[in-house]
Amino acid sequence: xxxxxxxxxxxxxxxxxxxxxxxxxxxxxxxxxxxxxxxxxxxxxxxxxxxxxxxxxxxxxxxxxxxxxxxxxxxxxxxxxxxxxxxxxxxxxxxxxxxxxxxxxxxxxxxxxxxxxxxxxxxxxxxxxxxxxxxxxxxxxxxxxxxxxxxxxxxxxxxxxxxxxxxxxxxxxxxxxxxxxxxxxxxxxxxxxxxxxxxxxxxxxxxxxxxxxxxxxxxxxxxxxxxxxxxxxxxxxxxxxxxxxxxxxxxxxxxxxxxxxxxxxxxxxxxxxxxxxxxxxxxxxxxxxxxxxxxxxxxxxxxxxxxxxxxxxxxxxxxxxxxxxxxxxxxxxxxxxxxxxxxxxxxxxxxxxxxxxxxxxxxxxxxxxxxxxxxxxxxxxxxxxxxxxxxxxxxxxxxxxxxxxxxxxxxxxxxxxxxxxxxxxxxxxxxxxxxxxxxxxxxxxxxxxxxxxxxxxxxxxxxxxxxxxxxxxxxxxxxxxxxxxxxxxxxxxxxxxxxxxxxxxxxxxxxxxxxxxxxxxxxxxxxxxxxxxxxxxxxxxxxxxxxxxxxxxxxxxxxxxxxxxxxxxxxxxxxxxxxxxxxxxxxxxxxxxxxxxxxxxxxxxx
Length: 606
Description:
By secondary structure, this protein is an alpha+beta fold. Helix content is 26%, strand content 26%. It is built from 14 helices and 26 strands. The strands form five sheets. Strands 11-12-8-7-1-2-3-6-4-19-20 form an eleven-stranded mixed beta sheet, sandwiched between helices. Strands 5, 14, 15, 16, 17 and 18 form a six-stranded antiparallel beta sheet that branches. α3 crosses α4 (96-109) and α9 crosses α10. It is globular, with a radius of gyration of 25 Å.
């Protein structure tokens, strides 16, 4: 890392509803020598946008992350102003102007003089009819009926945020932007980067990617969770110390729980990415394959080696739309043959319900999903559990009519006295039908999006960002790790002994990132975890397990990591899915149970 000027940015929020612990931590850190220049907040996901859109439809003063006002601004604005730390947040959701108005009201009440800026232009919901001929960028599906659209938002970049900071903003509020843009925008402003400083843009985008999920970079969801379990009640939130060349040091406030090491940062780097050589953002196409991690000291990891390519000429744009209703209800079976009892109960409940649907002439369910939990079912053909004596049964159905969806619960509950023995019901509120909200992704030319930066009463249009079409065929893939055949005695060990892992979702796709604890393990992991082997491990979840392109594999020589991208595996993904794990969060844990053949000498050194 160079000796260039450095700025400190703290990542305070990874989703709407995140704990409010981060800002007090950062303010205390600033007082004790870890002075922060910026605190950034990421509140948005696709489903969050649809929820906010419905809230705004009911009340024009809502549609944003109210937590940003109630849990950040109101209790801490005086300390924030005193310390001179700037805030950048996508808390604006579908109504950034209303969010800004609420923030300004708190500032005025506190008697402070602070500038609040709004980046607007991402909300395209009113233009739904214009996209009638569009096709989904992954599945090729036709654009949904505009009447069913809840939200349409372009994922904006970081340069408008930098422009707001250039104009003296103390707080910048955006609608939908890519998660890392709140970090990159601060860096563009501070270091004066242009659109041609591609490696710097890629490096700071990776810093934003590390920060965007809060304590996931400091021990949350960590493979080695037990090593820091007792301190996670006071989990530290991540800080990136970013230099002018885009490299950075990841750390956290002193006297906080969790840990920052190569494992936690490596896992977060791999989280929810696809092709690591084509991580496409509005401002730069990032190549993270050569990124290296170096432990500098306790809770300090240096991150460097990102490569940038010219920005694309499109914005990824996501629409959410309603597609019927779903009902998901849990039941519990306890005793011998619990799984078979649960399946029999579910089968008969469906028979009863379908008989009534036919009698009412409302049509069958659009989809039915019966799952059990507690019987190793998530591991498919590789489950190892003995006959379980207690399971959770989940019955899920989808239907165009919410009353028809609700009928499954009525009939299943009504069978309480006509069931195999061992049924236990939770004594509490009953579940209700919920809307099925689906995601539709498309690419729109940047020239079709009008962006504005508004500070107080002044509003300025932000110029066309330009860009060039990205061609994946131009990617030069690194050589795969070579496996030496020296005739050494081999032994099988679980992958978890050799690697860290993290998984997540993107729509109906899931990624699984595997990073070796030592790069010498990489050839053995690569040799075992072929696309076919991973496809076999997840055949029970994949929509088309026999399709050769259902699993993709990418090598990252900087760390020896492998990233897998699994297509059409989440049952629709997000709230459209009825799966026990609709976001693939457990998939790394499933893969980490895979046996890997390594030389006995390596195994003895574990």
